[in-house]
Amino acid sequence: MYITTKHLQILDIIKRNPTFTIKDISQVLNMSTQHVKVYIEDIYIELFNTSSKTLKAEDIINSIYISKNSKNTLKKVQHFNKAQNIFYMLFLLGKNNYFKLSEISKELGITTRNLNNYSANIKNILDFFNLSINISNKGVDLIGDSQNITRFKFYLYFKFLVEKNYLPKKLRDEFLSFSKIQNFKKIKKDVKKLVSLIGSKNMIYCEFVFFSLYMTYRDSQKIKKIKDISLEESLIYKPDYLKIESFNKTINFLKNSIFKDISILGLDIIFMVTDNNKVSKKLISIKTPEYFENILPIFKQYLGESSNPNFSMILKSFVFYCEVKNIMFIDDSSFINLNMSHLANSNFLKLTKDTQQILPTFSFLEILTLWYAYHEKPEQKENNIFVFKYLNPSFIPMLIKEIYKKHNIEINDFINIKNLNSYLKTNKVDNLILVENIKIYQKNIPIKNLFIPIVNYKKI
Most exposed among 67, 108, 241, 315, judged by the fewest C-beta atoms under 10 Å? Predict the structure, then answer.
C-alpha cells in the first residue's frame, strides 16, 4: 500500500475527532469525499491487512479510531510524495551544493526521466531566490550568490520545522542529522526569550523563524559574529519601529545567548521578521496587497466590523505566510492537533472556503487564528501624566522627550499641580511622573519621582 503524509494526517483527524464523517474530513482538508474515502480504505487495509469493501464508511472510521499503535504502523511504510521528492533534492543542494542523479534515483526509487520532470519544479522554486541549477552527466549543481543560497537555506529549514510531524523518516533523519543541534533545551529556552523581547506577537511561527535563523547563520566562518560587535556597531541594524532601549536590551540578550555565535547578517533578519513589508522585499519577492484588500471584506461579511485596530497588520502577516507556503510548498497541518468537532456545523467552514477562493494556501488554522484576532482588543497602555509646579511650561515637551529616552516612559499629558485635582475628576490616570520635589497625596495612583540630569557646559 502506498502510504503518504496525507494518510497520516487523516489518521490524526480521526483519532482526535471520532464523530467526524467522511464529509467532515473532506471539508476540513479541502478534499473531495471520494478522495477521502480512498485514503481511509488505504489506512484500513494497511492496519488490518484485509479489504474494507464490505464495510460502511462509519465502520471503517470507527475501526481506525480504536486501532492501537496505528501511527507508528503507517510511518514505517510511509513513502515520499512528489513535493517531498523535490524538497529532498533541494535539501541536498542546500547541504552540499550538488547531488548525483544516479544516487538520487536509487535513493528515492524514481527513474531518471521523472528526475528530469522534477527539474522544472526545482528551477521555479530556486528562481524566487535568484538561484539556478546546472544539470550535466555528473549531476546537478546549485549556482548563485552565497547570500541568496543562505536565504534559501533559511526558508528550507523553516519549511521542515513546520512539517516536522509528518515528514517521512528518511527526510526527517537527514534533516536532524544535518542540523546537529546539541543542546536543544538551551536553544528552545533562548528562542522563547527572543520572541518575547522582539515582540513578535502577530508573526506566524516566530519560534520556527528563529530556530531557522540560528541553524542558517551559526556556521559562518569569515563573517563577524554577534558576540564580536559592540552596541554602537549594532545600531546600523536597528529598525525605525524599535525603541533604542528595547533594541539595546535585545542586543545584550543575544550576546549572552546561543545566538551570540551566529553571523551579524542574522541580525538584519531578527529585527526584520516583525515588519512584513521589509521581509517581503529583502528575503523573498512577494506582492500581497491585492490578497489583503480582497480578504478583509470577507471577514467583515461574516463577523461584522473588527474591534481590533491591529487586525489589518495581523492579516497582512498571515497573507505573507500563505504566500511563503505557496512558494515553498509548505504543508502546514498544525490545525490537525485541534479537536474540531464543534466547528463542523458552524459558518466557520464557509468563511474558510470563501477565503481559499482568493488565497488557496489559507488553511483551517490561519482562519481560526484570525477569527479570534478579529475581535481581540489590544492591551491598554499606561496613561502616564507629567506633573509640574515651578517649571516653565515652554520646555516641558523637551523634558518629556528626555524622560522617554532615559527611562522609556511615554508621557500622555502634562499638568500643573494646582490643576491636578480637577484633571483627575475627568481623566483616567495610571501614573504621575515628577522631576521636582512636589508633595502629592494620591492614595490610588503610583507616583514616580525621576531625576533628569542637566548637561554641564564649560564656562567660556
Answer: 241
pLDDT band at 459 (very low <50, low <70, confident <90, very high): very low
Where residue 389 falls among pLDDT bands split at 50, 70, 90?
confident
- Cβ contacts of 233 within 8 Å, gap of 6 or more: none
pLDDT of residue 220: 63
Cα–Cα separations (whole angstroms), residue 290 to 197, 286, 358: 32, 11, 9
Could you give the 3-state DSSP secondary structure of residue 143? strand
Give tens-digit pLDDT for 403-443. 887 777 889 899 999 889 889 888 889 899 998 888 887 77
Question: Coil, helix or strand for 78?
Answer: strand
Phi-psi region of 287 (alpha: psi -120 to 50; beta: other; left: phi over 0): beta
Q: What's this model's pTM, rounded to 2 decimal places?
A: 0.76
Give the pLDDT confidence score for residue 59 in this predicted structure: 93
CB 371 within 8 A of CB 302: no
Helix axes 57-66, 33-48, angle to 10 degrees: 50
Rounded to the nearest 10°, the torsion over CA 162, 165, 167, 168 is: 170
Give dist(CA 457, CA 454) in Å, integer: 9
Q: What's the angle, vertex CA 96, arms to CA 93 and CA 101, rounded to 5?
A: 60
* Cα 394 to Cα 372: distance, rounded to the nearest angstrom: 46
Grid cell listed for 361 = 494556501
Q: Which of the four pLDDT bands, split at 50, 70 and 90, describes residue 378?
A: low
Distance (Å, rounded) from C-alpha 408 to C-alpha 73? 57
Grid cell for residue 169: 523518516
Q: Please return the burial class of 45, using the count of CB atoms within 10 Å of its CB with bins 0-12, 13-18 and 19+.
A: middle
Per-residue model confidence as pLDDT tens digits over 233-253: 888 888 777 788 888 888 999
Residue with cell string 499638568: 415
Query: Would you state the pLDDT for residue 236?
Result: 87
Q: Is 80 exposed, middle or buried (0-12, 13-18, 19+ CB in 10 A)?
A: buried
- Give the single-character DSSP code of 223: S
DSSP 359-416: -TT--HHHHHHHHHHHTPPPPPPP-EEEEESSS-GGGHHHHHHHHHHHH---EEEEEE
Percentage of the chain beyond pLDDT 90 is: 25
